Amino acid sequence: MSCCCETESPYHRLLTALSGVLFIVGLVLSFQVTTESRPIYDTIPPTAGLTLLVAALVGGANFIPSGLRSLRSLSLDMDFLMTAALIAAAVIGEFAEAAAIGFLFSLSELAEDYAVDRNRSALDQLMALEPEVAERVCLDGNQTIPVEEIRVGDVLAVRPGGRLPVDGVVVSGQTSVDESTITGESLPADKTIDDPVYAGSMNQEGYVEVRAERVATQTLLNRIVQMVEDAKERKAPSEQFVRQFSRVYTPVVVALALIVMIGPWLLWGEAFGDWFTRGLAVLVIACPCALIISTPVAVISAITSASRNGVLIKGGDNLEAIADVRAIAFDKTGTLTKGSFEVLEVISANGLNERRILEIAGALESRSEHPIARAIAKYAGSVEPSSFQSRAGLGVEGEVDGIAYRVGRPSMLNGSLEDEASRLVDGLTGTAVVLSTDDEVLGAIVLEDAIRDEAADCLNALKRDQIRNVTILTGDRRMAAERVAEAVGVDVVEAGLLPEEKLTAIEAIQQKHGPVAMVGDGVNDAPALAAARVGVAMGVVGSDAALDTADAALMSDDLSKMPYLFRIARVSRRVIRQNIVASIVVKVILAAGAAGGVVSLAAAIVVGDIGMSLLVTGNALRLARTR
Questions:
Q1: Are 440 and 418 in contact (CB under 8 A)?
Q2: Phi-psi region for residue 35, left (φ > 0), alpha (ψ -120 to 50) or beta?
Q3: Cα–Cα distance between 571 and 553 in angstroms, integer?
Q4: What is the tens place of the pLDDT at every residue in 220-274?
Q5: How far is 503 from 481, CA to CA, in rounded Å?
Q6: 133-138 long-range CB contacts below 8 Å, 24 or more apart?
Q7: Roughly what angle, to the nearest 10 degrees, separates helices 316-324 and 561-595?
Q8: For residue range 146-196, what is the model confidence (pLDDT) as tens digits?
Q9: Strand, helix or coil for residue 560
Q10: Cα–chain center distance at 351
């Protein structure tokens, strides 16, 4: 069962408008004035009948071919139901009813198209933010070139008030940039040399030169739009249910309409024409257009609206899954905290100079991308490791000046060395890593990671919004994790976890509390993100891997987007249920009224088809106002 939400002919609007004009002219010609000066419906004059028949055929041209194709393939759909109703009404001489079907059903299809087009235009507006030309910096003078000709490595001049043509890195100048098209953040972001910038962003005040890192077709903005487009193809469970329901619903409706048409005539000798018209009304009313579009139009509206607010949701299936979440697990570093560590203290265990501890540890950490590693690496100076190996979730190891060293958690060591390292860091309030050789523990480096300003408010909002449990899953020491948990209001702390242990923890939370969302960086927490019912990657503006692996993504490093993510998911589910229930209830009431002769064919089309289609469409479009 399908609903025709895409216009099959480029002349759909023209045909609908012409059908409407002919329909009105035909109705006017069909009315006569009595001596009491009031209009009454009488025998249709030939001119009026011909006008109404043409109106029916003109409007029907938008769906009759599709209806006949569905009959040939025995996949009876809405177009078939309306085609059958139009032809049957014309055959028995009910030209006004036939014209009403042709015009009003075509009009309802345009209403459905409006909902889809409105969401499509929102994405088109995003794409339109990329300029058509760019100013390339050259030795012999700047050149104005089409954006399509930009190549990776080109240096581009961006003046105040101009938009960034492609993703790149600032190589000269400083400015502030409006990145709301990407991150949903209203405040401009300050940019200076080596800072990343993104296509579609608006340069506010300074002149900068940017080195292109991506070509026009591969910008982050393009990828976001493509992912939103792809998300529309991933059906929500409720949408799958509606489609399966419609496959059974359609033949049942056809059978019921036939019974209403010929049952009373055969069994009790009732007037055939009267009951045939009632059967047509049942057939028209039962067309499940509003029911079929009730879910996809809401899903599209929610996903598109979320993308414009800096939240990417990958498909209707994930949208409904988010609405079901009852527990959330957060990675600590870079999620609840800023991920920008500072060295607070260096502790020597065997008399080694503290500066030397930092140099050796910094040399090894210079090869790692972990936030802790970046904080220590700047102390390496000119020291270089001769070998290097990363051990996921534990630390790094390698040789410096011919000696093998390890930097990481105490559990990276074995036997008595592990015990000694654990005693060294016990009682320390910050995050600590240990430097050791194969034979002894040399010292510890204590770091501090600032908690995000919005973390506590975010978690309080989530708990008010049906979240039963909030857990920290971290590889850091328990004391450091509990400091963060106490500050932001986390219920449970599970510390000292390896990546695979986070996966086991997610499964345990899910068994106890129900569907769980894991919030992390989308790369280091990949096993846990995969195990959770919903994986949410945070701050993925510069991370292709995070965009690819997550079920949903917060484009900026802003936890305040989390309550919005769950709110729009739950509001959209409520809208979907409202649309489905309203569609079914109104159809049942109108069908009963039509069978009883209370609801006319024209009223059935206006209320049951156009009215309900506009109702569910309007209800879905209000999702764009969710903040």
A1: no
A2: alpha
A3: 19
A4: 888 777 776 665 566 667 766 766 776 677 677 778 888 888 888 888 878 877 7
A5: 18
A6: 133/165, 134/165, 134/166, 135/159, 137/209
A7: 110
A8: 999 999 999 999 999 899 999 999 999 999 998 876 776 667 888 999 999
A9: coil
A10: 56
Interacting residues of 562 by C-beta distance below 8 A, sequence separation 6+:
458, 461, 462, 519, 536, 554
Strand order in the sheet with 133-136: 143-146, 133-136, 155-158, 208-212, 168-172, 196-197
pLDDT score at 570 = 93
CA distance 62 to 139: 59
Instruction: Report residue 618 CA to chain centroid gap.
Output: 19
Under 8 Å between Cβ of 565 and 184: no
Evaluate whether 623 touches 578 at the Cβ level (below 8 Å).
no
**Mean pLDDT, the chain, whole residue set:** 82
User: pTM for this one?
Assistant: 0.70
Structure tokens at 76: 């009876």
| Cβ 554 vs Cβ 538: under 8 Å | yes
Catalytic residues: 331
Can you give the pLDDT at residue 41?
A: 42
Radius of gyration from C-alpha coordinates of the chain: 33
**Furthest-apart CA atoms within the chain: distance in Å:** 117
Strand, helix or coil for residue 577: helix
Instruction: State the angle between helix axes of 272-286 and 561-595 in degrees (0 to 180), rounded to the nearest 10.
Output: 170
191 and 176 Cβ atoms separated by less than 8 Å: yes
Coil, strand or helix: which one is 491? Answer: coil
> Residue 139 corresponds to which amino acid?
L
Digit-coded pLDDT (tens) for 39-87: 444 456 788 889 999 999 998 888 888 888 888 877 766 777 778 778 8
Asked whether 466 and 512 are in contact (CB, 8 A), the reply is no
Q: In this structure, what DSSP letter does residue 471 have?
A: E
Cα–Cα distance for residue pair 372/485, rounded to 1 Å: 19
Question: What is the distance between the alpha carbons of residues 246 and 294, in angstroms, rounded to a whole number?
Answer: 13
Of residues 433 and 475, the one with the higher pLDDT is 433
Helices (H), 128-234: 180-183, 220-231
Q: By CB neighbour count within 10 A (0-12 exposed, 13-18 middle, 19+ buried), where does 223 fall? A: middle
Q: Which residue carries 């702390």 as its tokens?
A: 493
Q: Report which residue type is found at 198.
A: Y
The encoded tokens of residue 558 equal 């802003």
Query: Among positive and negative, which fits the CA dihedral 213, 219, 220, 226?
Result: negative
The one-character DSSP state at 163 is B
* Cβ-based neighbour number of residue 602 at 10 Å: 17
Determine the Cα–Cα distance for residues 476 and 433; give it in Å rounded to an integer. Answer: 9
Give ∠ CA 532-536-537 in degrees, rounded to 5. 130
